[in-house]
Amino acid sequence: MSKRIGIVCYPTVGGSGVVATELGIFLAEQQYEVHFISTTMPFRLKRLYPNIYFHEVEVANYPVFKHPPYDLSLANKIAEVVDREQLDIIHAHYAVPHAICSLFAKQMAKRDVKIVTTLHGTDITVLGIDDSLQNMIRFAIEQSDAVTAVSESLKTQTQDVFETDTDIQVVHNFIDSEERIPAYDEDLKRRLGINMDEKVVIHISNFRKVKRVDQVVEAFSKVRDHVQSTLLLVGDGPEYSKVRQKVIDLKLQDDVIFLGRQDNIQDLLKISDVKLLLSEKESFGLVLLEAMSQGVPCVGTKVGGIPEVIDDGVNGFICPLGDLDCVSDKVVNLLTDESLWNKLSSQSKDIVEQQFQTEQIVKQYESVYDRVLE
Ligand code: GMT
C-alpha cells in the first residue's frame, strides 16, 4: 500500500515552501498519498493531482486571545488529519513551530505517526541563538524520528549550537531543471527598457536584513563603473525602502530596476548574465540552483551552505562576506570575458544535472521515510 505523508510547511514564496511543495508533487508522482497541512494552498501547487490533498489550518481569533493561537490550531489540525487520513509520516519543514506542533499532534492522535523534521536555516541560525527558544528547538530535534538539514554547514551549526549528538542527515535542496527551461523571451529586455547589448546582473530574495541587498547595490555600483549593465532586483521585504534609498544615494536610478515579487523568475533569469547572493546567513540558497539551471553563473558569499552550491571558479565565484571589491572584480570578469562566462555557464547547468536533480534528492528523503517506518 502506498505511504501516506503529511507535509507541514509555510505556503508562501520562499525556499522552504518551494522545497516542501516540489517534494510533495514528486512524491505524489511516485504514488505516495500526500496531504499538505498549511494556512493557505502552497503557491506552487497549481495543477490538480488526484493523490494530493490540502488541509487548511484556520486560526481561531476570539477577542479573549491576545494573539491568534496559530500553533495550537495547527497542532489540532495535524492530529485530526493523522487520524482521519491514516497518515504514516508527518514531514515538518522547520523545527519551530512545525516540528513542535507535529510532536504535540502525535501525542493527541490515536494513530502512531512518525515525525521527520527538515531544518531550513532560520530556525537554527537565528532562533537557535535566542535563549528563550533554544530548549524548545533542541526538544523538537531530539524528539523527531528523523532530522534532515539542507546543508552540511547547517548540520554542523545545529550540532554546535544545540550541543546535540542527534543524527542529522544532509539532504540538499533540489530543482527539476528539465521543467524550467522557458523559451528565451527576446522582447523582455526591450520591454524592461534594457538595451540588447547591455549586461544584466540579478538578485532575488525576500529582502530580509540577512540578505544584505544594500551590499548587492554597492557591489553593482562598482561593476557599473566598468561595464554598461543593469541590476534587476526581484522580491520585496523589510529592507525594501532602505535599498531604494541606497539606489538614490548612489545615483543608480537609471541602472537598477525594482520588480517586486515575481512568481515566474525563470524568464528573468534567462535574460540575466550573473546572479548575486551576498547573504550574511544562508543555509543553502535555493535561488542559486534556479539561476544555475538557466546557465547563469553565481557570485556568492563564503557563508553557510553557499559554498556547497557554488564551487569557486567552477560554476561561479565565492567572496568573503562584505568584500565588495572581490564581488565586483568577479562580476566584471564574468561580464567581460566571454569564454570564462561560457565555461561557467555550462558548468553551472552540468552541476545542477549531476548533483541537485529532484529525482536523485527525493530518493534520499524516501530512504529517510523507509528508515523511520522500519
Ligand atoms: O531565505 C529565506 O529567508 C527564506 C527561507 C525559507 O524558509 O524559505 O530560506 C531558507 O530555506 C531555504 C530552503 O531550504 C534555503 O535555501 C535558504 O538558504 C534558507 N534561508 C536562510 O538560511 C537565510
TrEMBL record:
Keyword list, A-Z: Transferase
Domain Glycosyl transferase family intervals: 186-349
Record's keyword annotation contains Ribosomal protein: no
Residues covered by the Glycosyltransferase subfamily 4-like N-terminal domain: 13-178
A GO BP entry: bacillithiol biosynthetic process
Residue runs in coiled coils: none
Any one GO molecular function term: glycosyltransferase activity
PANTHER family: SULFOQUINOVOSYL TRANSFERASE SQD2 (PTHR45947:SF3)
Protein name (database record): Glycosyl transferase
Organism: Alkalibacillus haloalkaliphilus
